[in-house]
Structure formats: structure tokens, C-alpha cells
Amino acid sequence: MSVWERQYRDAVAGIHSPGSLDEKILQQARRFKRPKGTNRWLSKAASSCAAVAVIVLLAHPAQYLGALTPDLRPAGGAQQSPQANWRHKRVPTEAADPWFDLRSQVRAGSFVELCSQWRRQQSGSTPDTLPRDLEDRARAHCRLLP
Amino acid sequence: MSRKNFQHLNDEALLDYYHSTRNLKAFRLLYTRHKDSLYRYCAQMNFAGTASALEELWNNLLEHPPQLRGRLLRSWLFIRVNKLLRNCAGQYPDTPQQVPDPGNKLLAGIQQLSRVERNILLLHMECQLPLATVADIEKISLKKCREHYRRGKERLEEILQGPQRQPWRIKGLGEVSA
Q1: Taking the model in full, what pTM does it have?
Q2: What is the ipTM of this complex?
Q3: B1-95: CATH topology
Q4: Chain B positions in Cβ-Cβ contact with residue A26 (cut-off 8 Å)
Q5: What one-character DSSP code corresponds to residue A73?
């Protein structure tokens, strides 16, 4: 700042805008009202609705029906868990299946027992009949004896 | 943005903020930043028309947000008030005798300059506008504007401190007397 400007600043330091003029202009400014904040409120409502929807979707119990609520299913009903079905089918127990021994022999390739049972059934000397699948295999493998 | 921390905003951002929210405090801040400088400039250019010019200026700013087009708000204000003062000049003839502070020699000296020189000097010193902007306002070239500014300062110096010493004359007088 040059000497001139400093002198000038000192000279005008005491000159301020008169209060009456300020008051008049601020009075005019007061006439302009703040615009209504509807947009802001609208966006707030919209965003909170979206947040609630997301939370409901994430926490909805229907997602976890299979995983978390086993006790609510009808016990022993038609709908059993796939895991239980699989275990049942693959590993038949001796107690559950009366034809377990015979079946395992057939699976191993030995048809002697099967054929003798089959023949006994044909001659009517045994009361219990073979189940359908064993019957099919016997018909295919056993020789017809006179 | 919170309603309270607009203190740090610059003029242009504050103006935008005011026009989007019509926050009276924001306007008051903007007004206090510029009111004194504007008043001093107007009072020294045309004392009689000051109040009406300033009222019209701020009214315009309140009603329609100014199209700054990359300029500073400060430049816009002074360009605008300069135009308004020119319009006022017909209504209130420029009377150099009426100064805000008649006791001050410097201010009285400024009043004795021609209108163009006074305008350029004040715009540059009081309003701190660059000379290029001042040249645009006066619609003259930058070179001419600088010339006016220099001459105005010289004349002001002459008014305040009398004519410059002319040592060759004194020397000549001395030779003559001897």
C-alpha cells in the first residue's frame, strides 16, 4: 500500500454508511420471505420411507423360514427337510428293511439266496412275497426250473 | 449446509445462498461487507444522489439475483452503482462543495479533481478495483486509464502541497542575483 492509499484510508476511516440508510435497506430486505421448504420435507419423507423399506426387506422373517423356524413345521408331515430324506434313502437300516440282507447280497452279485426265495415263493411254500424290485431282478436272473 | 456457518463464504457464494434461502442474516452479512465502501465512493462522487442510488442498487440486488458471469460481486456492485450515479447526475447536479467531511484536506482535494480523474482514483483506491476494470467502467483504454490515474495523483499532490519544487529556477535566480 502506497503512502497515498494509507493517507486516504486514514482520511475516510471515520466515514460510515448512515444508520438511517442501513435501516431502510434492511427494511426492504425483510419484505422478501423465506421460500417454503416443501422440497426439503418431501425429500426427507421419501428417504425415510426408502430406509424403512430396505430394513423391512433385510429383516423380513420370511427369508429365514427354512433356516430358523424348524419347530413351526408340522412334525412328521409330508414336508420333511431334504437332508433327512437323503439320509433315509441312502443308508437304509437293517431294522427298517426286512429285505436288507437279501438286497445287499443281490447288490454284491450273488443271486443264490434270491433265486431260492423266489422259487419258494413260486411254489407257494413261504408266506412272505418279495418286494417289487427284487421280484424283477429274480425274474431276470433266475433260471426257470421245472 | 447448516444455517449458521455461512460466515466464511465469499461474496458470490453468500449471494447464491441468500437467493436460495432468503436468509436475512446472510443478506445483512453481505450488506455490512460492502456498505461503507459503497457509501464512501458514492458520497465522494455525488453526495446528493447517494441515498437514492444506494437504495436502488440494493433493491435491484434483492429483487433479482445479479448475473455475475464470472465477475466478482464487488466489481458488479461498483459497475452498477457507477451507472446509477450517472443516471442520477441529471437529477442531482454534481456539487463538489458538498463533501462528507469538509474539514479534511485530502478529501477536499479529491473533490477538486475532474470527474473522470476522481472516478478512476476512487475506484482504484477506495473500491480496490483493478485498473483494467476501472478502464472498462469508464469505457477507455487501459493505457489512457493509467495515464488519468497518474495525472490525478499528481494534481492531488499539487493541490495538497503546492507546486513541485523547481530547483533549476532557484538556481537561475541565484545566478541572476549574483
Answers
A1: 0.58
A2: 0.70
A3: Rna Polymerase Sigma Factor; Chain: A (1.10.1740)
A4: 24, 27-28, 31
A5: S
